[in-house]
């Protein structure tokens, strides 16, 4: 059977989970990443392809014969990658684009560098003439994997902000919705706001992790500027500033709203942070 669904970002968090669900369901998938060794098993009806978003010819080849694409791009500093993906989809005659975006694009107060990039990428897709669905998640629960090293080495979570709420979402739930949007009719022209079932703080997430891991954990609130400087070293000034602005929106209460869409699409409650932590406990262990 020839592959009909292409998953980009298939070695990553959401793309990987979507790829595994599609493969387990026997769907004919093609998984794209830069290194085949990092891609999940595509299943008996699937295949792996390698290619870079910077390489239009590789993208065209990856999209040949493809009906639906999960679009996961990762670098706000490289909007040319998003443009290349859309152009290749047009040239290959792809029928449907399901884009992993972000909930902040729907919030006029969110004008940071990352959100503007996502907004422009959505606009490009809406204007390209291919049927589309936007997945707009709040912060991923898996972002707390950044705490794993501190937990392993000193039993301490160091983060900022400590007590601001976000209705963070399990990437597995995003992947379940992505599978529906890629494989069923009825999702064209829809933008889905995807949150978890409750708005939680970093301090509360630490308490959950301590319970799940069965060991006490300390919480140390970092200084906002120190967090920004560390992000600057890793991602550059523009992305670091955007992450800080996003955290400031969290402090101001802008990320705490629980949306009903995920549970409606999943046909069950969205997964809690505790469920995510139990599922991923091994990643925090020594
Ligand atoms: N984290 C959050 O809280 C959050 C919230 C809302 C929205 N989002 C959005 O979610 C998206 C990221 O999703 P994710 O966290 O699932 O991804 P991820 O785990 O960061 O993985 C990124 C994926 O993109 C691939 N990739 C990176 N550069 C590439 C290139 N030049 N060519 C081809 N493939 C490339 C990587 O593959 P290889 O490196 O293996 O090639 C990997 O599969 C972003 O658009 C982000 O804005 C994130």
TrEMBL record:
Domain NAD(P)-binding: 9-185
Transmembrane stretches, start-end: none
One protein family per Pfam: NAD_binding_10
InterPro entries from the UniProt entry: Ergot_Alk_Oxidoreductase, NAD(P)-bd_dom, NAD(P)-bd_dom_sf
Protein name, entry field: Nucleotide-diphosphate-sugar epimerase
Lineage start: Bacteria, Bacillati, Actinomycetota, Actinomycetes, Kitasatosporales
């Amino acid at each position: 059977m020839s592959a009909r669904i292409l998953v980009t970002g298939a070695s990553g968090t959401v793309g990987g989970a979507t790829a595994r669900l599609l493969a387990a369901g026997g769907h004919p998938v093609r998984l794209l990443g830069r290194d085949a060794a990092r891609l999940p098993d595509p299943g008996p009806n699937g295949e792996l392809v390698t290619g870079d978003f910077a390489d239009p010819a590789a993208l065209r080849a990856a999209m040949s014969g493809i009906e639906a694409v999960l679009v996961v791009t990762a670098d706000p500093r490289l909007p040319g990658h998003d443009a290349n993906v859309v152009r290749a989809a047009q040239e290959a005659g792809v029928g449907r684009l399901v884009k992993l975006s972000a909930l902040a694009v729907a919030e006029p107060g969110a004008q940071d560098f990352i959100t503007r990039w996502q907004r422009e990428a959505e606009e490009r897709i809406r204007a390209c003439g291919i049927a589309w669905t936007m997945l707009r998640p709040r912060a991923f629960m898996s972002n707390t994997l950044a705490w794993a090293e501190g937990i392993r080495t000193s039993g301490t979570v160091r983060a900022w902000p400590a007590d601001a709420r976000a209705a963070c979402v399990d990437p597995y739930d995003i992947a379940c919705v992505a599978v529906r949007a890629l494989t069923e009719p009825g999702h064209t022209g829809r933008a889905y706001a995807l949150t978890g079932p409750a708005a939680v703080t970093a301090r509360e997430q630490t308490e959950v992790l301590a319970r799940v891991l069965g060991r006490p954990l300390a919480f140390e609130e970092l200084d906002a500027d120190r967090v920004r400087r560390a992000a600057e070293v890793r991602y550059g000034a523009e992305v670091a500033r955007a992450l800080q602005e996003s955290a400031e929106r969290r402090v101001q209460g802008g990320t705490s709203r629980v949306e009903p869409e995920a549970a409606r699409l999943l046909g069950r409650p969205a997964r809690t942070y505790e469920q995510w932590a139990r599922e991923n406990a091994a990643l925090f262990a020594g």
